[in-house]
Write a structure and sequence with these properties.
The complex is a heterotrimer of chains A (639), B (98) and C (509). Chain A is an all-alpha fold and 639 residues long. Chain A contains 25 helices and 3 strands. Chain C has helices spanning 3-20, 24-48, 79-98, 116-135, 139-148, 150-160, 165-194, 201-204, 211-228, 237-244, 247-257, 259-272, 274-300, 305-326, 329-360, 371-374, 376-389, 396-411, 413-438, 454-472, 475-490, 502-508; strands at 58-66, 71-77. Classes of the chains: A mainly alpha (639), B mainly alpha (98), C mainly alpha (509). Chain B: Belongs to the complex I subunit 4L family. Chain B: It catalyses: a quinone + NADH + 5 H(+)(in) = a quinol + NAD(+) + 4 H(+)(out).
């Protein structure tokens, strides 16, 4: 079934849905413009604005649910943005409202958590300003009704991410990580921009409304757009998605991004921003469905990243980097799902929402642990924390069980859906995804065992304690989501049917098969991973200093040599090129200009030597000249 | 018949020119210039005779007047230079160069 | 009311007044007041301007100047000229406020004290020239303003600049004169060959038909504009001039003066010599694209802040030239908007860099570090100015860069793709500079690097407000620009772009 038509403007809350963007933007503006005067209540304003956006999102969601299915795509045109090119317009449909709910819901919880987490930081007000800015930009990204406005939000979240990764700018590593994230993202944006250009020159529009599956198929069949063009659009959009979602080959920034404060890692680099790539692929489904090659590449990228992320996650001792590897890997699953057409979209989005909850949950849990351990991130210096911080540990464990796909928890339903759908399309990809799930079981268990169980390997001055309730309450709320959301979204194909007006409905609705071969194999592999992790990190002693490890361990610790590769391929040659270009400019082009000037100056300097000051030589030259003139006259006269 | 006068004029001019080029004493150079001017005068007069009109003769008068004026100013300059620099050599007065 | 003549006369009279008053302080205040009067007048002009008008030039005034050769004092504006005049009128008061102490000899790296009155008088004279050059509708008058602009700028660089000021000033003057003289030859040849007995621009459109003649005349005009803009490879005077000029003068140099080059390409090259323009388009596009990438790469390798900003401008001028010669509606309008936005964005960057240099006395990037910690406001404005330099969406430069690229892609996809890589490089040079100067442990104690004072906030505030406002709502400016660009592009007689899927769009409207 095709997605529904977009109906322009409606009344009610949807008519003022721009408030979702405007409220947090206003919050950010107030906090940044009024500076220190807002220090005392700035964080409260930030939370209020985020909650306000959440309220609007919920109200819009309720209004949308009240509409008949055919009308569940409501456009809100605000004003003409670039005349003739793009309007500033919002699109409220099941897909965008799902994201809006996730962003504002999880976002608000993380705002609240940050009150406690950042309470001792002198820059807390600025932090909340940036968080609000992020929420506004992210909502603009998902609510945009065309690619240009989407791109504004797309780069807006990139800016917020840059500001928040580099929040502690006085740390050179943080500043470098922020810059790296922005630049790598820009490489992706390069792809997205050219995709937009191609779409515009082919279809004469960038509005989602006019880029439906029917329009794309029509253009191909009428010969207005070649299959190659559509495939190119798909691949370019994928490049953009890879940048934002840290998929291979643009994955390298995400691990460095963990330099940012932990709530940032939870909100931006786990729950929301990094999933924007998945959103983009799903939103551009019309192009991917018309370009099987592009779709295949999406799935391959997804599978490659899910394996790479999982392998990286296995070797990290830094708890946040371990979680970051896991995020990469889980987004790989989503990407895989997003490359599988309408059935996959629903599972991808379901996994995305569930992941938003359990990964935010675990990141915030990790933050709580760091908060208790004087900002120590090395898991080798944790151990046995379960007994001192029970709420954090329990909620973290729930997130852990959800991510490894423990039966009946969120991840079990959503990940299994992606794997089953992948199996139907391509056995190899499917089985690789199963292997990835097994590795997930290992590295997540490793993390839990090293942190909460085993011997206490704390630093001498560590006095861990449970975090205040402003931090634990969000953890509890998130863990409730981690338990139930998967079942709620997947069973009865609830999300799939809800999303149908936005992304279309597959011809055959998939059933839920808990005892299929891939499902059981996945469970078995996960169990093997958990047990192996128990023997390595639960039962056995964990050394406080990391052992050297095998080749494979080093490979994983070095992020699969992604950074080394970037450095060798781009950074060094780039620096060399820049130095050469400067040299060429100074010596070559400017040298030519200055050389010309110097040449003229030098020539005249030499010529003036003729003026010796001796009257005799002047007289001689006069005589000589006269002789030449006379000779010439005679010659001409005789002709 | 006038050829001889012209040859004489050319000879005088050449002597004057060589004098200007090779002599260093300003007075001698000056006199050589006079010689060249008078060689020209001779040529003018000769041509006037040859053509049978007075143009050349009139120009000769002009030249004489100009030469007289030139002598006045020129000698004055030479005297001044001699007074300040104790030399009448043209090569010593080479400050106006480059 | 002769609006444009008033606009040109007010700053000139102001300059005379400024040079006559007794105290330096009064001179500065008078200069600021005069520039604000010009700003208000320009605002009124913009208000009275009718974008939809059928007239080619509004507020037109034509008087005979040298009747023997048909030279007129002819002024008038269309949308393109109007926005550039507005740019000058907005920038000058900001620059005057920013340069308040530049001639006092009080800064950490200040050159020896010079006449304060002269500096501000020169600024006002320059403003008059800038307004005149954009308003001129007589080709000869345009040429006169084009060359006369050099004089105040020459003295501002040569007398008030950094250590290498005289080298930079002479290089700037000679380079520009070289181009200008080529243009003079072409202007005279145009007059003679057209044989219309007039230099008035509207009467010279479409007169030159012979292709060879068009090419030669085009070359004469284009080289002058390419030097002025500056287009690769005629650019090397700019980094020297911009790095040595005092920050305020650098803003006007790069922000407005150089726009005369790209403005001239759009107004004169395209309209007077349409066939030659089409003939030379591939060459110009190659130069522009090379300039974009080359300028960005060289900027990455710079160690001096002001030189770095100058090279980013070379990259941006590549975008503008690309937009002009892509000859599509979107690209042309984008290029015009880019001229305006670049003025504000680079202006902001130069001014913040100027504030930094005033405090620390060095323009070397390596001498800074961790400024964010001691002067967060300064760092914040620097970041916003930088982000507008890398065309972040939501800031004005994005709209124009996007329009240029999408408009170019309509006709020259390969050029557009290569140019788009400039987007990535821009992120590298801006953010790397920000990282090296603003982040990390601070190198300066707070008293060496005080945060922005109120005067500086009033300098940066309006600039940033304009940049953000035009980033989200560019429509008012584009509505002024679009009709004028449409007229210009249509005079080239080139097939307008239509998307492949055209019929659906036509049905939808």
């Amino acid at each position: 079934m095709e997605p529904a038509e977009i109906i322009q403007h409606s009344g009610g809350v949807i008519g003022v849905s721009w408030l979702m963007v405007a409220l947090p933007l206003l919050g950010a503006a107030i906090l940044l413009l009024f500076g220190r005067r807002t220090d005392r209540w700035g964080h409260l304003l930030g939370v209020a604005m985020s909650l306000g956006a959440f309220a609007v999102a919920v109200a819009a969601f309720v209004q949308l649910l009240g509409l008949p299915e055919a009308q569940r795509r409501q456009g809100v045109r605000l004003y003409e943005f670039i005349p003739g090119l793009a309007d500033m317009g919002l699109l409220i449909d099941p897909l965008s409202i799902s994201f809006a709910l996730l962003i504002t819901g999880v976002g608000s919880l993380i705002h609240i958590y940050s009150i406690g987490y950042m309470s001792h930081d002198p820059g807390r007000r600025r932090f909340f300003a940036y968080l609000n800015l992020f929420v506004a930009a992210m909502l603009l990204l998902v609510l945009a009704d065309n690619y240009v406005v989407l791109f504004v939000g797309w780069e807006g979240v990139g800016l917020a991410s840059y500001l928040l990764i580099g929040f502690w700018q006085f740390k050179p590593t943080a500043a470098a990580a922020a810059k790296k994230a922005f630049i790598v993202n820009r490489v992706g944006d390069f792809g997205l921009l050219i995709a937009i250009f191609t779409i515009w020159t082919t279809f004469g529009s960038v509005a989602f409304n006019e880029l439906t599956g029917g329009a794309v198929d029509g253009a191909i069949s009428s010969g207005d757009a070649s299959q190659g063009t559509i495939t190119a659009v798909g691949l370019l959009l994928l490049l953009g998605a890879c940048g934002k979602s840290a998929q291979l080959p643009l994955q390298s920034w995400l691990l460095d991004a963990m330099e940012g404060p932990t709530p940032v890692s939870a909100l931006i680099h786990a729950a929301t921003m990094v999933t924007a790539g998945v959103y983009l692929v799903v939103r551009s489904g019309a192009f991917f469905e018309a370009a099987p090659t592009a779709q295949l590449v999406v799935t391959i990228v997804g599978v490659a990243t899910l394996l790479a992320g999982a392998i990286i996650g296995c070797a990290k001792d830094d708890i946040k980097k371990g979680l970051a590897g896991s995020t990469m890997s889980q987004i790989g699953y989503m990407m895989l799902g997003a490359g599988l057409g309408p059935v996959g979209y629903a599972f991808a989005i379901a996994h995305l929402i569930a992941h938003g909850f359990f990964k935010a949950n675990m990141f915030l849990g990790a933050g709580s642990v760091m908060h208790a351990m004087n900002d120590e991130v090395d898991m080798r210096k944790y151990g046995g924390l379960f007994s001192v911080m029970k709420v954090t540990a329990a909620t973290f464990m729930i997130g852990y069980l959800a991510i490894i796909g423990f039966p009946l928890l969120s991840g079990y339903f959503t990940k299994d859906g992606i794997i089953e759908t992948a199996m139907e399309h391509n056995q190899i990809l499917g089985w690789l995804a199963v292997v990835g799930a097994g590795i997930t079981g290992f590295y997540m268990s490793r993390m839990v065992f090293m942190t909460f169980f085993g011997k206490r390997r704390w630093a001498d001055d560590a006095h861990p304690h449970e975090s205040p309730s402003v931090m634990t309450v969000p953890l509890i709320l998130l863990s409730i989501g981690s338990v139930f959301l998967g079942a709620f979204l997947i069973l009865d194909n609830r999300l799939m049917r809800f999303l149908a007006p936005a992304v279309g409905l597959p011809e055959h609705l998939p059933g839920f098969h808990p005892f299929s071969v891939p499902g059981l194999t996945t469970l078995a592999l996960v169990a093997v991973g958990v047990v192996y992790a128990w023997f390595r990190y639960g039962a056995a002693e964990v050394p406080r200093l990391a052992p050297r490890g095998s080749f494979l361990t080093t490979f994983a610790r070095r992020d699969l040599y992604g950074d080394a590769l970037n450095e060798a391929l781009f950074m060094r040659p780039g620096q060399w090129l820049a130095r050469f270009a400067v040299f060429f400019d100074n010596r070559g082009i400017d040298g030519l200009v200055n050389g010309l000037a110097a040449g003229i100056g030098g020539t005249s300097g030499r010529l003036r030597r003729i003026q010796t000051g001796y009257v005799r030589s002047y007289a001689l030259s006069i005589l000589f000249g006269a002789a030449v003139v006379v000779g010439a006259l005679l010659y001409v006269g005789n002709m | 018949m006038t050829t001889h006068y012209l040859v004489l004029s050319a000879l005088l001019f050449a002597i004057g020119a060589i004098g200007v080029l090779v002599r260093r004493n300003a007075i001698v150079v000056f006199m050589c210039v006079e010689l060249m001017l008078n060689a020209c005068n001779l040529a003018f007069v000769t041509f006037a005779r040859q053509q049978g009109n007075l143009d050349g003769q009139i120009i000769a008068f002009f030249v004489m007047v100009v030469a007289a004026a030139e002598v006045v100013i020129g000698l004055a300059i030479i005297v001044m230079i001699f007074r300040t620099r104790r030399s009448a050599s043209v090569d010593d007065a080479n400050l106006l160069k480059y | 009311m002769p609006w444009l003549s008033t606009l040109i006369a007010v700053p000139v009279l102001g300059a005379v007044g400024v040079s006559l008053v007794k105290s330096d302080k009064l001179a500065k205040q008078l200069a600021l007041a005069v520039s604000l009067v010009v700003l208000v007048l320009t605002g009124a002009l913009a208000y009275l301007f009718e974008p939809a008008s059928k007239e080619r030039f509004q507020f037109a005034e034509v008087y005979e100047w040298i009747p023997r050769f048909g030279v007129h004092y002819g002024v008038g504006v269309d949308g393109i000229a109007l926005v550039l005049i507005a740019l000058s009128a907005v920038l000058v008061p900001i620059v005057i406020l920013a340069s308040w102490h530049d001639a006092d000899g009080t800064g950490a790296a200040a050159p020896p004290k010079r006449s304060v009155k002269t500096y501000f008088a020169l600024l006002l004279v320059l403003e008059a020239m800038m307004i005149g050059v954009f308003a001129a509708t007589d080709v000869f008058l345009f040429y006169v303003f084009f060359e006369a602009m050099l004089i105040p700028m020459y003295f501002m660089i040569g007398s008030y600049g950094g250590a290498q000021r005289s080298y930079a000033a002479v290089k700037f003057l000679l380079y520009s004169l070289f181009g200008g003289l080529l243009m003079l030859v072409a202007v005279i040849a145009l007059y003679v060959i057209a044989d219309k007995g007039t230099f008035m621009f509207p009467e010279l459109i479409g007169v030159i038909q012979d292709p060879t003649t068009q090419k030669w005349l085009f070359a004469g005009f284009f080289i002058a504009f390419a030097v002025k803009a500056p287009l690769w490879p005629f650019h090397t005077w700019l980094p020297d001039a911009a790095a040595q000029a005092p920050a305020g003068a650098a803003v006007l140099l790069v922000g407005v003066l150089d726009k005369v080059g790209t403005y001239g390409m759009l107004r004169f090259c395209l309209e007077l010599f349409p066939d030659a323009s089409k003939f030379f388009t591939p060459l110009v596009i190659v130069l522009a694209v090379v300039g974009i990438v080359y300028g960005a790469i060289v900027a990455i390798g710079q160690t001096d802040m002001k030189r770095l900003i100058a090279y980013t401008s070379i990259s941006h001028f590549g975008f503008i030239a690309l937009g002009v010669f892509a000859m599509t509606k979107d690209a042309g309008a984008g290029a015009t908007l880019y001229m305006v936005n670049h003025g504000f964005s680079t202006g902001a960057l130069f001014l913040v860099a100027g504030f930094l240099i005033y405090r620390r006395g060095s323009s070397q990037i390596a001498d800074y570090g961790g400024v964010q910690k001691v002067a967060p406001l300064l760092a914040g404005t620097f970041l916003i100015a930088g982000l507008s330099g890398l065309s972040l969406p939501g800031l004005s430069t994005f709209v124009s860069e996007f329009m240029v690229l999408i408009g170019t892609f309509e006709r020259y996809p390969v050029a557009a793709i290569i140019a788009t890589s400039g987007v990535v490089l821009a992120a590298v040079y801006i953010l790397w500079m920000y990282q090296r100067t603003m982040t990390g442990p601070s190198k300066e104690p707070a008293h060496v690097m005080p945060d922005l004072n109120w005067r500086e906030i009033w300098v940066m505030g309006p600039l940033i407000a304009v940049i953000i406002a035009m980033g989200f709502f560019p429509k008012p400016v584009l509505d002024v620009i679009n009709p004028a660009v449409d007229k210009t592009i249509s005079s080239v007689h080139i097939e307008p772009f239509t998307p492949a899927v055209a019929e659906k769009k036509g049905a939808g409207q």
